[in-house]
Amino acid sequence: MSDRIRLIVEEQASGIRLDRYIADQRPELTRSFVRQLIDKKYVYLNEQHARPSAAVRPGDVAATVPEPQTLVLAMMAMGGAMLMRRKQPR
Length: 90
What we know:
Structural Genomics Hypothetical 15.5 Kd Protein In mrcA-pckA Intergenic Region, Chain A
C-alpha cells in the first residue's frame, strides 16, 4: 500500500521505545503524535498492536503506519479535529 510506512529495525536501534524509534525515523512526526497513532491502533509491531513503550529489536517490522497526510484526511472525514506540528530537525 502506498499510503503506509514500513520500517525495519536495525541493530543500532535495539532497545529503543517504539514511539521514539518511529519519531526518529520519520522527522516530520512528533513523538506525541506517534503516541496518539499507537494508542489509536494505527501502528503495529510485528503485525500486532503494541504499546508506545514497547522496545524494538533488530529485524522487527517496527511499524506500519499511514502517511500523516492520509491520517489527517481520514480523521477530518470522521469529524475529528487534529493539530499537527512540524518537528524541527535535530
